[in-house]
Write a structure and sequence with these properties.
18% strand, alpha/beta, homodimer, 4-stranded antiparallel sheet, binds guanosine-5'-diphosphate, 18 helices, 525 residues
C-alpha cells in the first residue's frame, strides 16, 4: 500500500493495527545518497574499528534524506500454517510546516538518484506528496511554541526574556506604534457599543500583533476573543470578537484541538516509527545499519557522538533488531550461502536445504509478484527481507529433535542473531553489537604503511613479495593497512623498512597509539 | 520545447540555429535551493559590500543544483514589425557518465523543492531524463583520459608516473600475475595458428587488463587489435583480434570517433552555454545574479574567490548581460513601476505608458498562453523576461525625436543598463557592475551596534528614538547596522553610548577597519 501525505491520516489506523497484530516487522529505507565522502571505499576501510565506522557513517551519510520507508508486517496464521503480510510504502519529505518551521536541507548524490531513477523510482511522489515528520526535539519545540502563543493570548504572558520593553502596559509601546495601538483600542471600545459581534483589523506586522495582544489582554482581560487569521493572500490579520465567558472558553478549546491536530500532522511519519518502537517487536532488515541510523536521525534525535550512546538510543527505538545479512554470513548459513546481496540471498533461499515460506498478502493489500522483481522499492525490499528471515529461521528448526517446520520470531533459536548489525567490509569484525561491547580482534599481524601517492596495489604486493599472501586495505592515496599471514613476519618487515626512504612501516599498535596522541593533542587545543 | 537527455542530441541543431538567428536571448534557471545559510535575510544584509554579497552567495548558494534552464530566443521580423520567439526548457542532471566520472552531490532545500512542487514542477523529468554536463576542467580531464587510454593501447605508454614497476616488459609483472599473463600470451600465440579472427578473454580486474595491454603491446607491437568490452552483466573483458595494418587503423579511427561522440554526450548541456557564449548576443534575465553565478559554476568553472576575477569570467561567458529587474528600478522606469517581481512587472508593462510588444511563436514551437500563467517554469519565465525587456526598451524609443516604436537590442539607448546586475536588498548600491568598478556609497551615517540577543527591532527604535527616522539592517542575533537620517547625529550617538553596558556602538568606518584587521590576522596564521 502506498502512503503519501494525501492518504496518511486515513491510513494511520490501518498501519497501527498491522503493527499491533504482527509477529515481526521488516523494514527498508531508500536514501537520496549513501556517502558524502571522497568515495565509498575510503569510508569503509577493512580495518576500521566499530567506533571509526560509526563516526564515518555519521559524518558522511546523515545529510542525505531517507525519502522512502518500507514496512512489511508479518502475522503467523497458526491454523493455516502461513504468514499473512501487509506492506506499506511510505513517501517521506520534510515539507516546511509553517513559516517558523525548520527549512531542512539535504544532499542528493547523483549516482544514487540515477540508480533509483533507472529503477523507476517516482521522485514526484516524494517531493509533491511526501509525508512530513519531526524529531522529538522539534516536536517539543513546536508544542512549546503553541503553548507560548496560547499563554500570550491568554494574557498570562511569558516574562522570562529580558528586554527594555518587557514591563507590561501601554507604557512599553514604542513611540511610533502608540498612535496605531490607540486606534485599535478605539475600534474595540466602539465594538462594545454596537450590535456587531466581530471586528477585523487591517493586516499588520508580527510586532504590531504582539503589541495588540498585550494591550488588549491588559485593557480588556475578559469579554474578548482575539485571534490571528490569514487573508487569501496569506497576510495575517487580527480578528476581535465580543464573547461571554462560556463562548470564550469554547473557542479556546476549539483552538486547542485544532492546534493538537496541526501538531499531529507535523509529527507526521514519526508517529509510525513511534508505533514500531512502542510495539517492541522484532524488526528485521537487510544490511540495516544505515537504515537504523537514518531512522533514528530523522525521526528521533541528532545521532550522539559516542558509539555507546548510539547503542543506547538504538535499544530504546528498536529494542529487538535482526539483520538478515549478518544472519546469512554466520554459521550455519555461511557455508550454504555464497552471495548475500538481498536479491541473491532470496534466490538461494528458494533452493534446498531451505524451504520458501508460505506467505499470502492480506485482503485489500496489493500483492507483490515476486516473479516480476521490484527490487529497490522500499516496501518490496522489506517484504523480501522478511521472507529471507523466515526461510533462515525455519531452517534452524530442522536441527531440533523432533524438527520443527515453523520457528516463531520469539524463539530462542534466533536469539544469537538478535541486535547484531552487519558491518560492511570489515575483515575481522562481522557485526556491531547493539546490546553489548564489540568484538576486539587481534591485529598484531597488521602493518600500517605510508608511501608516495604514485604507488599502486601491485607495488605493495611487490614490496611484501617475500612474505607470501598479504591483504591490502587502502586508507587513502598514501597509506594502507597490510595484513600479513603470519604475525612473526611483522618484526622482519619493520626491520627491513628501517632504511627505506620512499615508504614507512609501523605496527598496528603503534598506529593506534599515534592516532590516539593526535586526538588528545587536538582535544587540548 | 522541452529538451531532455532523450531528445537533446536531435534538438541541438535547432537550438544552435535559434541562437544564431536571434537578436537577443532571455534566460532563467530553476535551482534545488537558494540559500544554505542560517536564513536568507542574514545572507542579504542591507549594507553588504558587493564583495561581501558575492562571497556569501558563492559560499551559501553554489551547492544547489541548477536543474532547469530556460532559454527564449527573440528574432525581430522587420517586415512584420514583430518578434518571433523560440522557447526551450532544458532539464539538467549530472548523471554520472562512466565509472570514473565525478559523482556530483548537490543540496536540496525543502522550501524551494516544496515551492516548485506546488507549481507542478516535474522532478522525474530532471532526475530520470536530465541532460548531463561537464565544466571546462572536467571536459579537459575526460579528453586526457581518452588520450591516455589510447596511447596506452597504442603501446606508446605514458611513462610520466614513478612506480617501482614502471619499467617495461614482462619483468614488471608481479609474481602472482605471471602465470595468468603467460596463459594470455599462449592464447594469442595460438590465435595466430588458427583461422579464428578473435579471442575473448575471461572478465578480469583493471590491473590485469593493464598488464595485458602492456604485455601484448610489447610482445606483439603489430598485427593485433586489443579492446576492452563489457558483458551484459557489465563485467569488463578483453577481446583480441588478428588484424592487418589497414584494418587496425580503421578500427582505431572508428574507436576515436566513438570516443569523440561519447565526449560530446558527456559535455552535454554545456554545449548550449558555449553556443550562447560564442554568439556574443545580449542575454536578458530577471534578477539574474544567481542565474549567472550558477551557470558559470556548473558549466564553466568553479567560481573564483575574488569578485574582480568573477567579473572577468562573466565577461567571457556572457559578454553582454541585461537585468530587467535592475532596468525596472532605474530611471525612467523607477517612477512608473511599483513592484518589480517578474509577474508584477509584466502586468504593469501591459498598461500605458508601455505597449505590449507584438510577439509570435515560431512554427513548430509550442506557444505559451500568457493568460494561463506558467510562472516558475524556466522557459516561461525567460519568455516573460524577454517581453518585459522589449516593452521597456521600446518605451525608451518614445523619447527620441521622432519617436521610434522599435528599439533593437543593439541600440545605444539600452547601453546604460548593460552589464549591471541587480543587487537584492542592498540599500545604497543598486547593482553589481560587471564591466567596471562598483559604486562606493558614503556610509558615514551608519552605525554598527552590538547588543544582547534578547533585543528586538523595537529596542533599537527605542534606543535611537531621539534621532528621528532610522533604518535597521540586521547582521545577526547580536548586531545590526543602524542608518541615521543625519550624519551629524553619528557622533552624538557614539558619545551617548560610551557608558552603556548592554550595547556598543561603532561607526561604519571603525567596523570596516576592525573586520579588515581580523581578516589580516587570520590570513597570517
Ligand atoms: N596511491 C594509490 N592509492 C590507491 C590505489 N588504489 C586505491 N587507492 C586509494 O584507496 C582508496 C580506496 O580504493 P579501493 O579500496 O581500491 O576502492 P575503489 O576506489 O572503489 O576502487 C582510493 O580512493 C585511493 O585513495 C592505488 O593503486 N594507488
Ligand atoms: N536579537 C534579535 N535578532 C533579530 C531580530 N530580528 C532579526 N534578527 C536577526 O537578524 C536576522 C535577519 O532578520 P530579518 O532581517 O528580520 O529577516 P527574517 O529573519 O527573514 O524575518 C535573523 O535571522 C536574526 O539573526 C530581533 O528582533 N532580535
Amino acid at each position: 500500500m502506498e502512503v503519501t501525505r494525501t492518504n496518511f491520516k486515513d491510513s494511520l489506523s490501518t498501519v497501527y493495527s498491522a503493527i499491533d497484530e504482527a509477529d515481526f516487522l521488516a523494514i527498508d529505507g531508500e536514501f537520496s545518497g549513501i556517502s558524502d565522502g571522497p568515495n565509498v571505499s575510503a569510508l569503509t576501510n577493512g580495518l576500521d574499528t566499530p567506533e571509526e565506522r560509526y563516526m564515518k557513517l555519521k559524518k558522511h551519510s546523515m545529510d542525505f534524506l531517507l525519502f522512502q520507508f518500507g514496512l512489511c508486517t508479518f502475522t503467523y496464521d497458526q491454523a493455516e500454517s502461513k504468514y499473512v503480510i501487509k506492506t506499506f510504502n511510505f513517501y517521506i519529505f520534510p515539507k516546511p510546516f509553517n513559516r517558523t518551521s525548520p527549512d531542512i536541507k539535504f544532499i542528493c548524490q547523483s549516482s544514487s538518484i540515477d540508480f533509483l531513477a533507472s529503477q523507476g523510482f517516482d521522485f514526484n511522489k516524494v517531493f509533491r506528496h511526501g509525508i512530513p515528520y519531526l524529531n522529538q526535539e522539534e516536536e517539543v519545540q513546536l508544542r512549546e511554541q503553541y503553548e507560548e502563543r496560547r499563554s500570550q493570548s491568554n494574557g498570562s504572558g511569558n516574562p522570562s526574556y529580558i528586554s527594555p520593553n518587557s514591563n507590561k502596559g501601554p507604557g512599553s509601546i514604542p513611540e511610533e506604534h502608540r498612535e496605531y495601538i490607540g486606534r485599535v483600542i478605539e475600534k474595540v471600545e466602539s465594538l462594545f457599543t454596537t450590535s456587531e459581534k466581530t471586528v477585523d483589523l487591517e493586516p499588520c506586522t508580527g510586532f504590531q500583533r504582539k503589541l495588540i495582544y498585550q494591550t488588549l489582554n491588559w485593557k480588556f482581560p475578559k469579554g474578548l476573543h482575539v485571534e490571528t487569521l490569514e487573508t487569501e493572500k496569506k497576510e495575517r490579520y487580527i480578528q476581535i470578537s465580543k464573547v461571554d465567558d462560556e463562548e470564550r472558553k469554547r473557542r479556546e478549546r476549539q483552538k486547542q484541538e485544532r492546534e493538537q491536530e496541526e501538531l499531529n500532522d507535523a509529527v507526521g511519519f514519526s508517529r509510525v516509527i513511534h508505533a514500531i518502537s512502542k510495539s517492541g517487536k522484532l524488526v528485521v532488515g537487510h544490511n540495516m545499519l544505515l537504515d537504523v541510523m537514518h531512522t533514528i536521525h530523522q525521526f528521533y534525535c541528532v545521532l550522539p557522538e559516542d558509539l555507546n550512546d548510539f547503542k543506547e538510543v538504538t535499544q530504546c527505538v528498536f529494542p529487538r533488531l535482526l539483520d538478515t545479512k549478518l544472519m546469512a554470513t554466520t554459521q550455519p548459513f555461511k557455508e550454504l550461502i555464497n552471495i548475500t546481496s538481498l536479491a541473491e540471498l532470496q534466490k538461494q533461499l528458494k533452493e534446498s536445504p531451505f524451504k520458501p515460506p508460505k506467505v499470502v498478502t492480506a485482503e485489500d493489500f496489493p500483492s507483490y509478484d515476486t516473479a516480476q522483481e521490484q527490487l529497490h522499492e522500499a516496501g518490496y525490499d522489506a517484504y523480501i527481507t522478511g521472507l529471507c528471515f523466515i526461510a533462515m529461521a525455519n531452517y534452524l528448526g530442522t536441527f531440533l529433535t523432533p524438527p520443527k517446520a515453523h520457528i516463531p520470531s520469539r524463539s530462542k533459536l534466533i536469539e544469537p542473531f538478535v541486535n547484531k548489525l552487519f558491518l560492511m567490509r570489515i575483515i575481522d569484525i562481522p557485526y556491531l553489537n547493539i546490546s553489548g561491547p564489540d568484538l576486539q580482534p587481534k591485529r598484531d599481524h597488521v602493518l600500517y604503511v605510508t608511501f608516495p601517492k604514485e604507488w599502486k596495489t601491485s607495488d605493495l604486493y611487490q614490496l611484501f613479495s617475500a612474505f607470501g599472501n598479504i591483504q591490502v586495505s587502502w586508507i587513502d592515496d598514501t597509506s594502507a593497512f597490510v595484513s600479513l599471514s603470519q604475525t612473526e613476519q611483522v618484526q622482519i618487515a619493520i626491520n627491513t623498512s628501517r632504511y627505506a626512504e620512499s615508504y614507512r612501516i609501523q605496527t598496528y599498535a603503534e598506529y593506534v597509539q599515534g592516532r590516539q596522541q593526535v586526538r588528545e593533542s587536538q582535544g587540548h587545543t
